[in-house]
Design goal:
The complex is a heterodimer of chains A (517) and B (304).
Chain A lengths: L6 H21 L15 H4 L2 H11 L9 H11 L2 H6 L1 H10 L14 H15 L10 H31 L2 H17 L11 H13 L7 H6 L1 H10 L4 E4 L9 H5 L21 H5 L6 E4 L12 H18 L21 H7 L5 H5 L5 E3 L12 E3 L12 H5 L10 H6 L4 E4 L5 H4 L6 H5 L7 E9 L5 E9 L9 H5 L8 E4 L16
Antiparallel strand pairs in A: 1-2, 3-4, 5-8, 6-7
Chain B lengths: L2 H17 L19 E6 L3 H9 L14 E6 L15 H13 L4 E4 L7 H7 L2 H6 L6 E3 L7 E5 L8 E5 H4 L3 E5 L1 E5 L3 E3 L20 H11 L4 E10 L12 E10 L2 H11 L8 H8 L11 E4 L1
Helix pairs in contact in B: 2-3, 7-9
Classes of the chains: A mainly alpha (517), B alpha/beta (304).
Chain lengths: 517, 304
């Protein structure tokens, strides 16, 4: 018996390898001791053709950092959706999860056209500057779920266990557990415990994707994934295909086993659905399945009618139209503080793919996903919450990991001058003003070389009625960059006595804004 | 062992641990009497590594402070994400020199840490201290980030303003605590010197300390009293402290001040800024509590 080349094994190794790369890059999306991150940690977004297409459409220009997407396009034009089967970490995780999830036997839901609908809606609406990709791009969903939920929970549980041992176990146990903990901390755990808004919702979205495996294998990939849809369009021209192109008349084994449902009613291969998992090659009872370069010829039309295409296109245009009359175009949100280097608000929101990389890398856990503060259009986009964490003066990491340029990569010099917002002192809360108590923690921490918080001196009676010299802080507006360290460090409980407010200007098209008398 | 017995054992075992928190009774020897004229060395030199060695010579070298087998803590100021030239943190060479000396003197371990104001990894790296200490290849030397679990509440028996605060366990357990602050301007405290440097080994909400800073700092120093204070005045920050940043606010002095008297150290360092020792509230408060000498005229000052 001739041994067949173990293509499936190779595919599995490739999947695990890329999953390992993905996890390695995820873990290294962090401060590493130098100002620059040495790896292209945002690689999976930069070679995502869906990200490239929608961001370039929104920006209406070519964006060089997204050119790695061409590699995947060329790969797909030659080999088909090999990305889905061999590379995509979400696909790999679904394959792994699928092994443990018991499928419902009697449910048969096949909605392959949905992914094309979503693809068209995303691309058309991004052309009109509404970026919806964050709700559907597989990497955005996966990375956000990992950043906001899985990684922090993993850290929390590990720390809890080791802390319990540290605090309550006898010394001889601690002497073993602590070195283990140190090793764990150095190589596996994230450096810091982080806390995020929208942790639950991000997890639930991810959970649903995995639970869809109960209906069918790779349900997400076959029916919903808009990146899969985009790659499927390219795959129709691919030349590396399966032979025979039709299932055999007696044996339908390959159709039954196919995780991608890549056969039509007549039994013809639907190339754009095949992710080249090589199951049919390795498991063919007749051993006649081969993959080789052949002239591309598609026997069945794409699973997407012209009518559906036009309808989705209209939807794609309707959403931006609806958004253009939302209140957020008129009133700037005072608490929306975009990361340092962020483009002007509208461009920022249209180019941000909600990948969560900036929030992952933020060393003060300061960048948090927004919920509905700027409408659903801004959901999951990053905003600085200074009371949670402030923007570190010498840190430029968020601009380094942003895969689309929505956050520009700033030089240290630019960073020191980039205005995120402006600090405003609340004299009703500020200790020297409101309680005649010395403080000025804000001034102490203010990082600008010429401090944006300065002091005036005054003498007032303290709580015992004795006169004390007080230093009163005030903000020099044009020096303030809105890093928020003052708001974070302010010892006043509850709302800080100094708060950073957005000073982003939203052009008022009707000229009805701040009036001149 | 049946279930009942097992549960009883577990309950007793954990109750025992919970009821008895670690107790640190560190009675400062302060009230035993002040050394009449504390020895204080002011040394100048361009080579900061040898400068420290030179400044310790009048005391008989580091061996006067570090005994064989001692647990040593070297506590620099690593508070800020600033580089050495910006004079917001202790100079890395001063720190590494002290650590080498302590190791050579036979310390069983030397720990270096600070609770930073900026992000700790950035501060440890940018200050140059982490890389300077990595060059000393010795397993006894540990430069680590603060471990939140190690803050323990301590009664401040002699405190006049503060009665209880959290302190870092490693600092409390040290046989020899070497305080290595940088001398620099501080808008509230006037200057930040040795006594203020204790802020890096306390837990809790440190902003509250600012509300009666002078007395609070003196109180905190009764819990951990440095055996040796080395004030880094190789370059001092004249304005815009404590974080600074501008090089024009920095004055290069190439000086270190070494003494066993924490109050004398601060008092003398104040004069480098053309200020009187009593301009600093914490120095005054600590002097009043009998923690040391603040009149330079009553110190045994040796200039090298």
């Amino acid at each position: 018996m001739k041994l067949r080349f173990p293509w499936r094994l190779i595919r599995r190794i490739s999947q695990l390898l890329f999953l390992a790369v993905f996890l390695f890059l995820f873990r290294n999306t962090d401060y590493s001791g130098s100002d620059e991150i040495p790896y292209a940690v945002n690689l999976f977004f930069r070679w995502d053709p869906l990200v490239a297409a929608s961001v370039m459409l929104a920006a209406r220009q070519f964006i060089t950092i997204l050119f790695p997407a061409l590699i995947i396009v060329v790969l797909t034009l030659v080999f088909g959706r090999v990305f889905c089967g061999w590379i995509c970490p979400l696909g790999t995780l679904l394959d792994i999860a699928g092994k443990f999830i018991k499928r419902h036997e009697n449910v048969n839901i096949r909605l392959p056209y949905i992914k094309y609908v979503l693809l068209v809606i995303i691309l058309v609406s991004s052309f009109f500057h509404l970026q919806l990709i964050g709700f559907f791009d597989p990497f955005s969903l996966l990375v956000r779920g990992m950043v906001f939920t899985i990684d922090p929970v993993f850290k929390f549980l590990s720390d809890s266990i080791f802390n319990l041992i540290y605090l309550h176990a006898p010394d001889w146990i601690t002497s073993v557990s602590e070195p283990g903990y140190d090793f764990f901390k150095s190589f596996i755990l994230p450096y810091k415990q982080s806390y995020f808004r929208l942790a639950l919702i991000s997890f639930v979205i991810l959970l649903i994707i995995f639970l869809l495996e109960k209906i069918d294998r790779r349900f997400w990939c076959k029916n919903i994934c808009p990146l899969g849809a985009l790659l499927a369009l390219f795959a129709r021209y691919s030349t590396f295909r399966r032979k025979p192109v039709r299932i055999c008349s007696k044996c339908t084994e390959c159709e039954t086993m196919c995780r991608m449902n890549a056969f039509d009613e007549k039994g013809f291969m639907v190339t754009e659905e095949c992710n080249l998992c090589m199951d049919c090659l390795n498991d063919c009872p007749q051993k006649i399945v081969r993959f080789s370069f052949i002239r591309p010829r598609n026997r069945s039309p794409i699973n997407f009618s012209r009518r559906a295409f036009i309808q989705s296109g209209l939807f794609g245009a309707a959403f931006p139209a609806l958004s253009s009359v939302s209140i957020f175009n008129k009133v700037p949100q005072p608490n929306t503080l975009r990361p340092p280097g962020a483009l002007p608000e509208k461009e920022f929101l249209s180019m941000c793919v909600r990948c969560g990389e900036c929030m992952k890398v933020c060393i003060q856990n300061a960048l948090q996903p927004q919920f509905m503060e700027n409408g659903y259009e801004g959901m999951f986009a990053p905003s600085l919450l200074p009371r949670v964490g402030y923007c570190e003066f010498n840190c430029t990491l968020c601009g380094q990991v942003c895969p689309t340029g929505a956050i520009r990569k700033l030089s240290l010099r630019e960073k020191h001058r980039f205005v995120i917002g402006k600090a405003i002192i609340d004299k009703n809360r500020c200790l020297p003003y409101a309680q005649n108590t010395p403080c000025i923690v804000c001034e102490e921490h203010c990082p600008t070389y010429d401090k944006a918080i300065k002091i005036t001196y005054t003498i007032k009676n303290n709580s015992q009625g004795k006169p004390v010299e007080l230093r009163l802080p005030y903000v020099v507006n044009n020096l303030c960059i809105g890093c928020g360290i003052c708001e974070k460090k302010c010892p006043v409980q509850g709302h800080s006595a100094i708060r950073v407010i957005s000073d982003r200007y939203i052009p008022d098209e009707n000229m009805t804004g701040a009036g001149y008398g | 062992m049946d279930r009942r017995k097992f549960l009883q054992q577990v309950a007793l075992w954990s109750a025992g641990i919970i009821v008895m928190p670690p107790v640190f009774r560190i009675t400062p020897d302060l009230f035993a009497g002040i050394i009449s004229s504390p020895k204080l060395v002011v040394a100048e030199g361009k080579n900061y590594t040898t400068l420290v060695v030179k400044a310790l010579e009048p005391f008989g070298g580091i061996a006067a402070f570090v005994k064989q087998g001692d647990k040593v803590v070297v506590k620099p100021n690593i508070g800020w994400d600033r580089n050495p030239a910006q004079a917001a943190n202790t100079h890395p060479l001063i720190v590494s020199s002290l650590c080498s000396l302590a190791l050579d003197a036979g310390a069983s371990e030397v720990k270096v840490f600070d609770r930073t104001c900026n992000e700790e990894r950035r501060s440890y790296n940018n200050s140059g201290i982490l890389s300077a200490l990595e060059k000393i290849k010795d397993k006894r030397l540990n430069c680590t980030y603060i471990d939140r679990r190690k803050f323990v509440p301590i009664q401040i028996d002699n405190g006049r303003s503060l009665k209880e605060w959290e302190f870092y366990k490693d600092a409390l357990e040290a046989d020899c605590y070497i305080n290595v602050p940088i001398a620099k301007h501080h808008s509230l405290a006037g200057l930040t010197l040795g006594l203020k440097n204790i802020m890096g080994v306390i837990g809790g909400m440190r902003g509250i300390i600012h509300q009666d800073m002078g007395q609070n700092l003196a109180d905190l120093n009764t819990v951990i009293t440095p055996n040796l204070t080395v004030i880094d005045a190789t370059r001092i920050l004249l304005r815009n402290g404590p974080s600074g940043g501008r090089l024009k606010d920095v004055k290069v002095m190439d000086t270190v001040i070494v003494t066993a008297d924490p109050v004398a150290a601060d008092a003398y360092a104040t004069t480098l800024f053309d200020m009187k020792p009593d301009a600093i509230d914490s120095t005054k408060a600590a002097y009043k509590m009998g923690m040391g000498e603040m009149d330079p005229a009553k110190m045994d000052i040796i200039r090298l």
